[in-house]
């Protein structure tokens, strides 16, 4: 359970014990579920310990007139015992007494009642009486007790009470302390859009953002999205108050999943707010994502950030400990978030780009395959090439070979993209030393691209042709080598006899025989 549920449970426990919340602040060391279990256990003990005695008192009360019982209840029994006896009395008699007792006394009785034990009684009380008691409890600011009754009241009574509450901050606090969180979905459905907006504004006016965030957390995902969108549409002052309050209470872990549910326009407005761009705020968001492994909630927002903000986030992320890259890559692979991840890391400085390259080299084949699929889908080849150029030759070769084992067409698409993007130099540098792979891939390219690739490759690395020939010799790919040469520029063809002369005599003979079969013997003569 969340920090917000824990906060609500601690306040409710203090209320139940009649203590100031500071007296039970040590409970913050326990999780919310444990505190809730303790609170409910105390309630059950109070009601069950003297169950038989309360039954006998309720049975004895049947012989007395209701008017006399009302006097005894106020003068002798008191609200605490009345709360325990009420559930054992005949419903009609209990309702009659509720109509006779003063409203302040009934409010005192409500403090000790477990609403689950008096559902029939609550359904029988006139709506006007319930509204009167509600007003008394609001005067006392006893929102915790009111929250306990939310799930037990019939709809007509609940709506009448909600409509009677004029102060929106009161409604927000009652919702925060509601025991039956599932019932909040029903309550939100009873409110108009304008009322919901006023509740959000009241959260800022009365410094109740934890309670507002709690409401967003407790309801279903569609309602949470709706509440979040309403909040995001408020002015910068309201949103600034929200963000600063959530930072102060360290509630980013609660907010990030909600932001992930918002509409794209709302997400974009949130992440680009000036207050969200402040270094201390952004650091808090990033620290939370890193510490609690919530990159899957944060990364989608990166794509919506303006360049300056993204660069700031990139710098802060890079400054975290070395495990951050593993965590980001794990989130990207698991949740298919490679494109926003590439957006984030493209602003890394050279040192961190090199570290990223090493981190990628440690990843599994499955992770590498998911990266390559995302790069292909998002046409991010140029960035991938730049990352490859930060790797050692051995690491680069390992990744290329593993990439091909996952997707045999992937490097071919890389070369196509390199041609389109005008980054032949970088692509060929990344492929340097991989003549056998290049030979296999170049055969799959269009003829004009083969010519470009060979020409560019030779200008970058004069020894490339020699390695391609050697590879052709070992792999028996002479036919392709000759055809590629025939399609190459004249100056390249002129150098081929010199390269051929360096081959063993046996290989020269085989190559000449292959050339004669293809009608390309002219290529082998000066």
Could you characterize the architecture of this molecule?
With 526 residues, the chain is an all-alpha fold. The chain has a domain at 349-432. The protein has helices spanning 3-17, 32-48, 51-60, 66-86, 91-100, 103-112, 119-124, 127-139, 143-149, 155-164, 168-176, 183-190, 193-205, 209-218, 221-232, 236-248, 252-261, 264-271, 279-291, 295-302, 307-318, 323-335, 338-345, 350-361, 365-378, 381-388, 393-406, 410-421, 424-431, 435-442, 447-460, 464-475, 478-486, 490-500, 505-518. 35% of the residues are buried. The model has no long low-confidence stretch (mean pLDDT 81).
Number of helices: 35
Oligomer: single chain
| Overall pLDDT level | 81
Identify low-pLDDT runs: none
Helix content: over 70%
Secondary structure category: mainly alpha
Main beta sheet: none
Shape: elongated
Distance between the termini: 80 Å
Number of strands: 0
Cα Rg? 37 Å
Please report which band the strand proportion falls in: under 5%, 5-15%, 15-25%, 25-35%, 35-45% or over 45%: under 5%
